[in-house]
Specification:
This protein has 82 residues and is of the alpha+beta class. 34% of the residues lie in helices and 29% in strands. A hairpin with a 3-residue loop joins strand 2 (33-39) and strand 3. The longest helix has 24 residues, at 51-74.
Amino acid sequence: MHAKDNKEELRETIILPRKDFPVSNEINIYQNKVAIMSFGDEKIGIIIESQQIADTQRAIFNLLWKSLKKTQKTGKIDGKSS
């Protein structure tokens, strides 16, 4: 995924500095499901089917997204330059 493809792919991307935010799995939220996958040495995944859990994960995502959009405007993450 590359931010340069956003317009063509009809999406918006925020890229976090890997050194500050080392994320080693992927979380997808769709319908009433949350899929968590790890593609490291140990390949593992789980799908949780629960409207409450999916709604909570969406709320967490939206909170982070809004915070990061503000961060993009200031160029700072947690008080530091990004």
